[in-house]
Amino acid sequence: MGYNVAIDGPAGAGKSTIAKLLAKEKGYIYVDTGAMYRGLAVHFLDQGIRADDVPAVIRAVEDARVEIKYEDGTQQVYLNGNNITSRLRSEEAGRMASATARIPEVRKKLLMLQKNLAKEQDVVMDGRDIGTCVLPDADVKVFLTASVEKRAKRRYDELKEKGESCDLETIKEDIRKRDEQDMTRETAPLKQAEDAHLVDSSDMTIEEVVRAIAALCK
Ligand code: DC
Questions:
Q1: Distance (Å, rounded) from C-alpha 118 to C-alpha 98?
Q2: Is 26 exposed, middle or buried, given 0-12, 13-18 or 19+ CB atoms closer than 10 A?
Q3: Whose alpha carbon is nearest atom 13 of ligand 1?
Q4: Which long-range contacts does 179-184 make (Cβ < 8 Å, 24+ apart)?
Q5: Closest ligand 1 atom to 12 CA
Q6: Quick one: pLDDT at residue 217?
Q7: Which of 180, 12, 192 is closest to 99 using CA atoms?
Q8: Chain segment 1-56, per-residue pLDDT in tens
Q9: 66-71 sheet: strands from edge to edge
């Protein structure tokens, strides 16, 4: 049985940045479950399927083969044999992932894949339902959050640095919509597990957050 650290929280809370640093420091494998939902989202987008066309999404899930590989310690997502990792981070893929993650067939497709990754190896896994559904017996559970304003500003700075044009108000609105969508869905909504440690990173540096979580781990 691997040592399992679960980090859940809303979009833009810094989960992946923190989880990656923690994994490096502790020698765990970083498992990004959002990337798996994004992988299926790319599949739906490629087929021109709309998120509200649930029967079409369910049909498309059936012929999607998602595989996770680690190359130089970095997670790669393969869809039907093709490495689609470079396409996962677009806003379009994020929106589609959030909109289709509420469909039980989509979640079911990824659940065993996620559980199996954590079975044999030490992992830090981030997502929305890791502490509540995927790894209910995780050794350490963290609910990482931050104010909408701080999360939007971080995303804005990130996009600016990449040279992409963006608008702070639009990003804020997008984050609010995603929070609402992720927290109110019926299947595996985003919520803090009863035994999770709450970490609010609004006024913490990345280093401080990593230190706080590392102190909870073996
Ligand atoms: O963490 P992210 O932004 O890459 O995730 C994209 C979307 O995928 C997110 O808005 C909701 C969904 N998701 C989920 O429902 N459950 C997870 N464990 C991870 C992501």
A1: 23
A2: middle
A3: 34
A4: 179/10, 179/11, 179/148, 181/98, 181/99, 181/102, 182/10, 182/11, 182/98, 182/101, 182/128, 183/10
A5: 3
A6: 98
A7: 180
A8: 799 999 999 999 999 999 999 999 999 999 999 999 999 999 999 999 999 999 99
A9: 66-71, 74-79, 82-83
> What are the residues facing 30 on neighbouring strands?
124
Q: Measuring CA to CA, which residue among 28, 10, 216, 13 is closest to residue 125?
A: 28
Atom of ligand 1 nearest to the CA of 35: 4
Ligand 1: residue whose CA is nearest its atom 20: 34
DSSP element (H, E) containing 63: none
Token code pair at residue 33: 């479950």
Buried b (16+ CB within 10 A) or exposed e, 152-191: bbbbbeebeeeeeeeeeeebbebbeebbebbeebeebbbe
